[in-house]
Amino acid sequence: MSLSQELGNSTRLSGDPGNGGRGGGGNGSLGGGGANGSADGGNGTAGGEGHSMIGLFHCIVRISLLSSFVCVSLLGNTLLLMVFHRKPQLLQVANRFILNLLISDLLQTAVVMPWVVAGSLPSFWPLSENACTIMITLMHLFAYTSINTIIVVSIDRYLSIIYPLSYPNKMTTLWGGMFILSTWVFSLIQSAPPAIGWGEIAFDKDSSLCVVLWNTSPSYTALNILLSFIGPVAILVGCYGMVFQAARRQNALVHPVRPRGFQEMLEESNLGGEEPSEEEEEDGDAIIPIPRTFQASPKRCSAKPKPYHCKAARVIFVIIASFILCVGPYCFLAAVSAAVGAAPPWVNSCIFLLFFLQCCLHPYTYGYMHKSIKKELTVALLGLFCKKPPRGQDSSTENNFAMTMTMTESRAFPSHFSLTSAWKS
User: How far apart are CA 189 and CA 168, in angstroms?
Assistant: First the structure.
């Protein structure tokens, strides 16, 4: 009886190094060969220490970046919410779409991102697998709501520019509310499949992240890529492409191309002054030449007015590029993971960071680049950080500042047709 016990103990002792190799390295190959006995088990322990140190540094960097994203997103979205609360007049139908986008980003920041930070310790998840499924479902819900709202904003701007006369009758407050409600309903439908068994969600201990196992359901992966990236990009490019064409036509009407003879006439006129001729210098008197034509302002002749289509191109590029930068890698990861397998931990971390970065970019692309919101945000910040004027002068000071901003913008970008008003929406 004692002999069998000793044999059993020796068997367990000889197998422990191999298990240690597997545990230290995350799997047999990373640990240094967990099945090769006690000699290889030592190598597995050494490999496991190196892997844990890399994982710790990796998680520290990820936690730091995610924490900074949380702070920036909360600050930016809260400031814009403060502007809308301060000036309810800004909440036209178009700006209500922006408000819906801010709310979805705030929910993503306040509900999902803290749990990603909490689960970023190596091989640690404080809750159950069901909680992991709930977290990914909520992450997709808020992300889909942002994506669908961005689509609605692009369609709204397209309608306001291409059909300016019929736009107020089509995009009423009722229709705006229905569009906002539809973004949440469709997002709930799009994010629900993993919760009901179509697609699988699990906690990846190597990446310390809750992830979708894309290779378990290729059909769900293809649908997710289509609805979250390919379809939205096609709609954004189509709508904003037609907006850009309208901006070019508008610029051609406002700033027509000058004929060549006009430029030649400017060059022939002595605007820059001419040297006196030899006959004029014989008498020793310097003769100042007088221009034969009108004296034009150098700034007005040399400086070209800022075209509408350049402003439109800048705004369109920022909107589409930020969307592709944040959502594109996540869908690319889904496609590659479904075909090849799980990605390395650092790839998962980078893609998740880019995915959450959109919560920080939306306040700028859809808020600060908005003329009216930018003006009111400047007034609000001046009221917070500057010395308050005496009682009774607050409203007059703000009105004077707002009037100055409006006059400046009207001189820089005169209103023609509906293009400028569309960029304000």
Answer: 30
DSSP H/E element including 71: helix 37-86
246 phi, psi to nearest 5 deg: -65, -35
* Amino acid in position 314: R
Residue type (1 letter), 162: I
Using DSSP, state whether 399 is helix, strand or coil.
Answer: helix
* Phi then psi dihedrals of residue 229, to 5 deg: -135, -60
CATH hierarchy code of domain 53-256+306-386+399-423:
1.20.1070.10
Residue 250 tokens read as: 């508008």
Q: What is the pLDDT along the chain (425 residues), one digit of tens a residue?
A: 444 444 444 444 444 444 444 334 444 333 333 344 433 433 433 334 333 445 778 888 999 999 999 999 999 999 999 889 888 888 889 899 999 999 999 999 999 999 998 888 766 666 677 888 999 999 999 999 999 999 999 999 999 999 989 998 888 999 999 999 999 999 999 999 998 889 899 888 888 888 999 999 999 999 999 999 999 999 999 999 998 888 888 777 766 655 555 555 445 444 444 444 444 444 555 455 545 544 444 444 444 555 555 777 888 899 999 999 999 999 999 999 998 888 888 999 999 999 999 999 999 998 887 778 888 888 877 877 775 555 544 444 445 544 444 444 444 333 333 444 444 44
Q: Look up residue 121 and give its amino acid.
A: L
Report the SS3 class of residue 210.
strand
Compute CA distances 111 → 30, 88, 125, 216, whole Å: 35, 27, 16, 27
Residues in the chain: 425
Q: How far apart are CA 214 and CA 193, in angstroms?
A: 12
Domain range summary for the chain, segments of one domain joined by + = 53-256+306-386+399-423
- Contact indicator for 212, 200 with CB cutoff of 8 Å: yes
Phi, psi of 110 (to 5 degrees): -85, -25
The residues that bridge with 203 in the sheet, in sequence order, are 210
Q: How far is CA 215 from CA 140, 176, 220, 337, 346, in A?
A: 18, 38, 10, 6, 19
Place of tokens 């997710």: 224
